[in-house]
Design brief:
single chain, alpha/beta, Aconitase, domain 3, 2 domains, 4-stranded parallel β-sheet, 39% helix
């Protein structure tokens, strides 16, 4: 991998041990994926702030103890507790304390305590074409698909390393060619009234994610007036059923004003026509609860926007 003079100095430890460790991780991952260089990123979103095990806590506290600081504006994903009312949710005190320590460690790095899995609604919204380093699968899919910024799906620890160094490996969705559409998904026979139903886009996203796998799908037939909330639901569902990190919605995704642009002038590898029957089967699979006797309802994954909360209310 070819490094700049500054990057090589960081890797040699001249900017401190924390930066050396972080850059070594970024470089190693880049080498594994065949990256020939690093790219500066303008911001990061860290998913590793959710406490799940002691390894993540030790990693963050070690970085904080070494004096690490993020080099770019960095937002934080959700925590493992309700910070203000964790007792009301019967969170074990030892678990809550470890979560608190993890939260404190990332704030010590200079991260913004946004505590949301929808950072694209929190003010630090990247611009079209900007290189960013984001964790959280729904956020990655949204920022690539709807905004047209560029990021891979960054795993825990690597997201923090990118934030500390302000660098990401030059591979995958950071580059032009891997963003080319490969699968065409058509909605020819779906009634217009159904496309306005609140459940249509999450069901469609779940179906498309399962069909696409790791391929970049191109959707044709989505109206350009589609709401951002619907695109948010589509991206979250697609990232759940598959590895969706980018979908080109023709006429909506900034780099896909036409089908030809989405496929970068090439032909799709496969064309799939979504049917009503498939949508019904997916909806039934996602809705196994009985109509009567529902005991618990959870809202906000991804976090609801103010408009969505008002709509539910």
């Amino acid at each position: 991998m070819e490094l700049t003079r500054d990057e090589q100095a960081w890797l040699d430890g001249r900017a401190g041990e924390a930066t050396r460790l972080a850059l070594a991780l970024v470089v190693r991952v880049g080498e594994l994926f065949g990256a020939d260089r690093l790219l500066p990123v303008t911001q990061a979103h860290i998913d590793a702030c959710l406490y799940t095990n002691d390894a993540g806590l030790e990693f963050a506290e070690r970085l904080a103890a070494l004096g690490a600081r993020v080099r770019v504006p960095t937002t934080l994903n959700v925590t493992a507790r309700d910070i203000r009312r964790w007792q009301a949710f019967r969170v074990p005190p030892d678990w809550a304390e470890k979560s608190r320590r993890l939260e404190a460690a990332y704030q010590a790095l200079g991260c913004l305590p946004t505590w949301t899995c929808a950072p694209y609604e929190q003010g630090l919204v990247p611009r079209f074409g900007q290189q960013v380093a984001w964790g959280e699968s729904n956020a990655v899919a949204y920022v690539n698909t709807v905004i047209g910024a560029r990021t891979n799906r960054y795993a825990d620890f690597l997201d923090a390393a990118c934030a500390i160094t302000g660098r990401a490996p030059a591979f995958g969705l950071h580059l032009d060619r891997p963003r080319r559409g490969r699968l065409l998904v058509r909605l020819d026979d779906i009634p217009g009234a159904l496309r306005g139903h609140p459940s249509f886009y999450p069901v469609l996203g779940y179906l498309v994610g399962a069909i696409a796998g790791e391929r970049v799908p191109v959707l044709e037939g989505v109206p350009p007036t589609v709401r951002s909330a619907d695109l948010k639901a589509f991206c979250a569902a697609g990232a759940t059923s598959g590895a969706l990190a980018l979908a080109h919605v023709v006429g909506v995704t900034p780099e896909a004003p036409t089908r030809e642009a989405a496929f970068q002038g090439e032909s799709p590898e496969e064309t799939v026509a979504v049917t009503l029957g498939e949508l019904r089967r997916v909806r039934a699979r996602l809705s196994p609860a009985p109509v009567e006797g529902v005991d618990f309802v959870k809202l906000g994954c991804p976090h609801l926007s103010l408009a969505e909360a008002a709509e539910v209310a």
